[in-house]
Amino acid sequence: MKYTSFMNLDNVHCWNNSLTIDQIFTSNFYPDTQTSLAQASIPERKMLSDNVFFDETKSVDKVNDIKLKLEQRVISKPDFNLLRMLITDLCNMSCKYCKVMNNINTVQKKPLAKEHIARILQYFFANSTESKEKIIHITGGEPTMFFETIKDIVETAKQFARPHENYWIVMGSNGVLIKDKEARYLAENNVKTIVSMDGPAIINDSLRVNHAGFGTWKYADKAIKLLKEYDAEVSISTVIGLHNIANIEHTIDWIISEYHPVGLGVNFMKPPTNSQLDFPFLIDEKSYATKIYDLHRKYRHDGIFFELVYRKLAPFVFQKFRYHDCGAANGSTLNINASGFVGPCKSFLVMNKLSLDKKGLDNYSNFVIKNWAARSPIFYEQCQNCPAIGVCGNGCAYEALSFTGNEMQIDTKACNYTKIFYELFLKDLYDQIPAHIKSKPQWIYKPTMADRLKLFDNVRAIPHTLSYSIGHHTL
User: Where does residue 393 fall: left (phi above 0), alpha (psi -120 to 50 degrees), or beta otherwise?
Assistant: First the structure.
């Protein structure tokens, strides 16, 4: 397999090693590897012939090292960093693109029982490292329909947490039922809230509607402002689809100026069900990647955390191979639904796929980790020549199931937009090369870590905040 690629970026040449995520840029004076080596100075020649490039023996060693680390993870016991609790199947809204409500076969009308809450929290903490950063994510359905269950989770987590347990609680909500009393409780108990909103009312209310078909923007708007009044931490989750992609820069500008969120989820729209692959609001991957990365570049000096951008960019900047995109395939995510069943993935759990009852918890490692660890692109032959293999992680199993009929196949949508992101990263990295280097008629340059960090500017993943990836593996 070939892991070193030669890329031409607007008449600038770039050698890219996809395993070590290393790059060397040259002026177009050097049209290919052989010419570069022949004409380069001795220091430059050493740089170009560095063993991270062009040495396939080193590449094979790196591949074997990655596979070995995954195999070692498989035989070890789970070490969770996310517990997602779908405390109810019910929702007071009928969002047209919802993957939860549209996939549930039999609705559980009662919320998650106290006995299940205690059992799963005890298991979660017992199978995680005390000092390791971990998140309890409360969701649904709409969790605020059963606010007492939210309180039960908060209090039970305190009961089972060890003395130095490094965890925080996050809740996802549509905001409709968050009133004064609820906002105050969330703030006082440091429950961080992600409110779903796709833009101003005219955009949001085209798809985010209640059961009567009326828009719900005014309730989300009120909830965000009320939470902020009580100093609760708030971020906003926005689904990017045909309803907002054309004006997405204006929409995100408006969200940031109006609410000053800690972070932003900019989520690529997925089919509501496996049978709706022609869902009319789906968008192409190029429009999504280019517009979202432009927004990251615009707001990175302000430290605005765009979750999916950070998730893809972090392995590129830090040059660390990304085994998996989702926490489920990484073996670090645990989900429980309102019926008390557990599984690796929220989308699969609501479809009653890959779910275990309470007796199956001890088999979680064999059931999930051994199977889903193989969703890393390092095991897919068709991925080996891809320049972006080091940052990919093979996307979403739900997407793979939707478009191929098999959750173990490649998520082609994520594959496509990751390649586009990667080329944008390379161009961005080229822009960071010092001007005095690029002013020379001929030059060779290997970016430093200081150069690479400029792609983040002031953006950071900050534990115990919503400037953090929830449910997705970053590195």
Answer: left
Q: How many CB atoms lie within 10 A of CB 317?
A: 19
C-alpha torsion sign, points 412, 416, 417, 418: positive
| Dist CA 15 CA 10 (whole Å) | 14
Q: In this structure, what is the dihedral angle of CA atoms 248, 252, 254, 259, given to the nearest 10 degrees?
A: 150
In the chain, ranges of CATH 3.20.20.70 domains: 79-365
Distance CA 424, CA 418 (A): 10
Strand partners, 134: 167
Q: What is the pLDDT of residues 355-385, one digit of tens each?
A: 777 666 767 766 666 778 888 999 999 999 8
- Helices marked H in 127-175 — which ranges? 147-160
Q: Which CATH number fits domain 79-365: 3.20.20.70, 3.40.50.1820, 2.60.40.1930, 3.90.550.10?
A: 3.20.20.70
DSSP one-letter code for 142: -
Give the type of residue at 113.
Answer: A
pLDDT of 51 strictly over 50: no
pLDDT at 297 over 80: yes
pLDDT tens readout for residues 150-206: 999 999 999 999 999 999 999 999 999 999 999 999 999 999 999 999 999 999 999
Distances from the Cα of 265 to the Cαs of 172, 252, 346, 366, 460, in angstroms?
11, 11, 17, 32, 15
pLDDT score, position 359: 62
Confirm if 470 and 135 have CB atoms less than 8 A apart. yes
